[in-house]
Predict the 3D structure of the following.
Amino acid sequence: MTVQVVGVSGGKGGVGKTNVAINTAVALAHQGKRVAILDADFGLANVDVLLSLSAPQTIEQVLSGECSLEDAMISGPSGVRIIPASSGARQLTRLSELQHAGVIRAFSDLAAQLDVLIVDTAAGITDTALTFTNACQEVLVVVCNEPSSLTDAYALIKLLNRDFGRQRFRILANMVSDEDEGRRLVQKLAGVCEQFLTVSLIYSGSIPFDPALREAVKKQQPVVDYAPSAPASRAFRDLATRVSDWPLPRKPSGQLAFFLENLIQQPVGMEAPHE
């Protein structure tokens, strides 16, 4: 079973990355996809908080053998399944061979139940964030119209290119006034990247600044459910359609077993100096 694994990332906090992950997942579910979100922000895990969900067990208990992956998952809006985060993910580097095999098997078993896994990565350019992002088949970098957002997105792209050889990135402009502003923003980032890097940036749409989204956050609901006709909701539905059209991996890269293998083999949590 082929599962599309999409990492939602951003060079900095405050660009709306988790809201993008949640609303894209719910919009995909509305389109009939079987979707799960892995909250990979182990410092500030908040997917469950944004959806007013209780997470009695997390991936930490899965790794320690206290519960199964199935037990740790919680049900979110429109049947989206959520794998809650925990600082215990640092254990990924310290698994025994038996534990390693068990975690891979758990995610492989999940593959039969999923079409898309969305990985909400941590903000910033720590090795943990980079490792989770690179393990995904598709990387969606969220930017907004702030100089620090573009600077940090460039740093993220540069490090993924330099350290992992990744060359293709999908870029989403968030909280913009209109589509034109979104395209200009992505073109600005592409212009800088073209000067210094050999990478391909693919424009993946824009999400408008929308008061309905702020209201939905206050109500701890996805905006696509809270205000289906709002401009942001329409934009998220368009994004979900684009994600559905992205090519599925033809080789193990991007599939769940490969995703976990990639993760476990990297030195998660061991920070190396970056330029």
Observations:
- The chain has one domain: 4-265.
- The chain is about 45% helix and 15% strand.
- The first strand starts at residue 4 and ends at 9.
- The first helix runs from residue 17 to 30.
